[in-house]
Amino acid sequence: MEALGLAPAPSGRWEVVRKGRRCAGGTTGSRRALGEANAGRALPMAAPIATSGTIFELGFERARKKQNKEQVPPPATAPPEPPPRRNQPGKSAKRPPASDATAKPGKCRSLEEALKALDLADLQKELDKSQSMFPESPSVWVKDLAGYLNYKLQAPCSDPMLSQHPHDYPYCLVGKELRSIIRSLLGKSSGVLELFFDHCVYTMLQELDKTPGESLHGYRICIQAVLLDRPKIATMNLGKYLEVLRSHQNRPAKCLTVLWALGQAGFTDLHEGLKVWLGVMLPVLGIKALSPYAVSYLDRLLMMHPNLTKGFGMIGPKDFFPLLDFAFMPNNSLTPSLQEQLRRLYPRLKVLAFGARPETALHTYFPSFLSRAAPACPPAMKKELLTSMSQCLSLDPLSFSVWRQLYTKHLAQSSLLLNHLLESWESSSKKVRQSLQETVRSFKVTNEELAARGPNTHQDVAACDAACKELLRKMKGRGFPWSRLLLVLLIFAAGFLLHDLRTHGSFQGKAVALGEVSWDCVRDHLTSFTYSSWVYLQNTTLAITNWALAMISGH
After folding, report:
1. What is d(CA 372, CA 377) in angstroms, rounded to the nearest whole number?
2. 3-state secondary structure at position 16
3. Domain ranges of the chain
4. Most distant CA pair in the chain: distance in Å?
């Protein structure tokens, strides 16, 4: 019985073929085209990059053993023969030139040393040759570039996350002349850059299957160069890469390599970086081997883009509340240190989620805040939920309507919120108090109806009813401060009497003085008393006016 296998169809899908049969437009056709080109015949259109053995292989199986090997040109004295055949477009640069094919360059001590030793003239010569042989196949050019760089830049490998290096490593080490060569070629190949990005990622993953595999600096440099100008390329197929991550959870090195490659888009564009994080990093945040990189990437992303306005609209309730749970719920899959790091990022994530117009969006967040505010939730989370719900009620009036609809299903949570509003009554605005008054009166009617039905929810209803009554009492306000006014009058009278006694020495002295006073003295006393009374009347009037204004303004 013939064995069955998977082969890529020209449309980019996979189809089942029998072993031994060749898929139309596959590798054989490409090799035949290359052979004809080397023989001097007319150049056909090169096969698309999707048919390469390194593209769209979601299983990351080992590369098949090459069937053909490059031929070494014969000595100069031998009869002339056709030029050597190129087996696979884009991979020829991984082999050394014919002059030194017998020895593979050894690894340099560092990438900096390897870049200094790179012969840019030889690189340009190889690229010119590739463009000359395949003038209508830019996919071949860029694959030759990546293969050449990765072959030549052999230096000690570091961890897949490159955590001990700057965010733009290794591209930051590339000199101006090499950058010019790379960007010039990418500019000529703009139509195939998405497929080239996939080629680099999947070739890196194949190298991770080899023992020992090559270092991947060349492919990393190409990925960063592509996403520097075209960051959206990384987010065109996030669903495909998420499936790769899910199917290879037991291979952390491969998963981290994919996350690193996709994450390079965010250092140029916050919007694309958030799209990558929400699309492939948030779904794997619970995986122990991947969560440290996911959290550290988010930290670096938000640090590099302090202006969060470019990220508005990216985070909605569906993404925000899993983040809230990861940040505040104890005993989740994050370690305490990662949870603390995520909690420090939470305020900025909240700003991104609420967006540019929170007054029109917060009512959509209110239901999830309310449902989580159970009496048994952790104190830190409870505080955050109550603060957030107060913010929703203050900024988005529709939140009151949403609360009234959810009240009977969330009595315990509503009791917590009512008591929180009671505690923060003095700091609430007049607008909130007016909207709250209507809502609390509605709740009071509902409480009476629920209490009449039976004792099933009696405890929660009683707690809500008590909070509603206290809020209504505060809404009525306090009466005129007669007690304070009487106290002021008594103090004034006592002060006036003491002043008079000090002036005349004693009651007896005062009586003698009264028999001897003249009309001028009486007039002076009356004038002084009248003035003092007038000043007191002014102060009292001012106090009453201030009290009335405070009652009207709600403060």
Report:
1. 8
2. strand
3. 484-553
4. 152
Question: Distance between CA 52 and CA 146 in Å, rounded?
Answer: 14
180: nearest Cα among 153, 216, 145: 145
C-alpha to C-alpha distance for 209 and 254, rounded to whole angstroms:
9
CB 441 within 8 A of CB 472: yes
pLDDT attached to residue 493: 64
Q: What is the dihedral of CA 170, 222, 248, 293, to 10 degrees?
A: 30
Q: Return the pLDDT at 489.
A: 66
Q: Are 245 and 261 in contact (CB under 8 A)?
A: no
CB 85, CB 68: distance < 8 Å: yes
- Residue 36 neighbours by CB under 8 Å, 6+ apart: 42, 44
DSSP class per residue in 460-494: HHHHHHHHHHHHHHHHH-----HHHHHHHHHHHHH
Give the tens place of pLDDT for each residue, 401-425: 999 999 999 999 999 999 999 999 8
In whole angstroms, give the CA distance from residue 57 to residue 4. Answer: 17
Q: pLDDT category, 545, cuts 50, 70, 90?
A: confident
Q: Residue for token digits 């019985």?
A: 1
pLDDT of residue 278: 97
Quick one: pLDDT at residue 479?
47
Phi–psi pair at 8, nearest 5 degrees: -75, 130
Kindly state the helix (H) or strand (E) to which residue 14 belongs, with its residue range.
strand 14-18
The answer to whether the CB of 366 falls within 8 A of the CB of 397 is: no
* Whole-angstrom distance, CA of residue 136 vs CA of residue 127: 14
Secondary structure string (H, E, C) spanning 133-188: HCCCCHHHHHHHHHHHHHHHCCCCCCCCCCCCCCCCCCHHHCCHHHHHHHHHHHHH
DSSP codes of every residue in 231-294:
GGGGGTTHHHHHHHHHHTTT-HHHHHHHHHHHHGGGGT-HHHHHHHIIIIIGGGTT-TTTHHHH
Q: How far apart are CA 401 and CA 392, in angstroms?
A: 11
Helix (H) or strand (E) holding 7: strand 4-8
**Separation CA 321–CA 450 (nearest Å):** 31
d(CA 203, CA 199) in angstroms, rounded, equals 6
Query: pLDDT band at residue 105, thresholds of 50, 70 and 90?
Result: low
CA distance 109 to 96: 20
Tokens of 223: 């990925």
- Contact yes or no for 22/32 (Cβ under 8 A): no
Q: How far apart are CA 498 and CA 492, in angstroms?
A: 10
Phi then psi for 16, rounded to 5 degrees? -85, 130
| Nearest 10 degrees: Cα torsion 367, 368, 371, 377 | -150
- Cα dihedral: 40, 46, 51, 53 (round 10): 50
| Contact criterion met (CB below 8 Å) for 535 and 529 | no
Question: How many Cβ atoms sit within 10 Å of the Cβ of residue 115?
Answer: 21
Global pTM exceeds 0.90 = no
